[in-house]
Write a structure and sequence with these properties.
Shape: elongated
Number of helices: 8
Strand content: 5-15%
Order of helices and strands: EEEHHHHHHHH
Number of domains: 2
Radius of gyration: 23 Å
Structural class: alpha+beta
Helix content: 55-70%
Distance between the termini: 53 Å
Number of strands: 3
Length: 162
Amino acid sequence: MAIFSDKIINAIYTNSDYTLIQIRYEDGGLVVPYTIDVDPNHSDFQALEAEGWDVERITEATVEFKKAQSAAWNIEVTAAAQKLAEELLPDITKEEVEVTGPKSYDIIVSDGEDKDKLFEFKLWALETDIMKQATKEQKSDLRKARSILHGFSVMNGVISDS
């Protein structure tokens, strides 16, 4: 009997080779991570399979875990970009944004639908003091940005690096 038997919360692959599985189980009110190798001959792997955690179920759990991580990361990047936008455009209030239109928050977070605004943003950003101290790679990343939000993310990286 494995230490996680009858206590499994989740099991996911933890590397790109799918050779390691992290089992999260509850023990005395605590969630405990336990990593095992994918080895059909090992007793821990056999115990995991005996509880219904076959390759398909572990793969599905891994996909769901990665989707949740991605969503959390997107929320974090969006919040950071909005904060940076407020720092870079401090004199523009939300009411002014709604009236003036060109720098609206909707344009900032849209996915590059308005190519003219995205181009204007890139020109503006490359002229800022922030981007003047950026590396060639960071400037290239800004030029390749597919949205204003992505552009702000690049700028935030330059600030973080300095």
